[in-house]
Amino acid sequence: MKKLEQYKNNIKLFICDFDGIFTDGKLTVYSDGKTSKVVDYKDIMAIANLLKKDIKFAIISGEKSAAIDILKDKFPTIQTFQNERNKIKVLKSLLEEHNLSPENILYMGDDINDIECLKYVSFPVTVRNAHSQVKNIPNIFITSNEGGCGAVREVADYIL
Questions:
Q1: Burial 89-107 (b: 16+ CB within 10 A, else e)
Q2: Which of 155, 159, 113 is nearest to 134 (CA)?
Q3: pTM of the model
Q4: CB-based contacts of 119: which residues, under 8 Å, 6+ apart?
Q5: What percent of the chain has pLDDT over 70?
Q6: Taking 50 as the threshold, does the pLDDT of residue 1 lie above it?
Q7: Average pLDDT of 44-49?
Q8: Residue 63: helix, strand or coil by DSSP?
Q9: Whether pLDDT at 115 is above 80
């Protein structure tokens, strides 16, 4: 935890996966084929709080989601990347675009497709119900909340 404590004041960019972080990782499929996901308003408030403190925010998701589009409409300055299979490539391009280093990045992810990004940054974060391989990453901060239950807000409050 000491390593994370020394970096929390250096964070300039907060990057999140979406499913399993903003959501509980479940997809509700209705009989008409439509789907839905639930997002906790505490996590939406976390984005607003981070932006007020001049911390940039980005979402990198392996899937396409209308919920991400809604967040982008609500917060036009956040950067969103959907259907991204190569998350580390996006993360590195964000570092270059914003002239940042791994010490300035918080990455929050919950599954094996996030591991490369989590190992690359100085402030890796996951949720309590993450995949075991993610929770075993050295120096990872594990939230007390599960994904979809205010975990983003918990982390935002910690660094702010």
A1: ebbeebbeeeebeeebbbb
A2: 113
A3: 0.93
A4: 137
A5: 96
A6: no
A7: 98
A8: coil
A9: yes
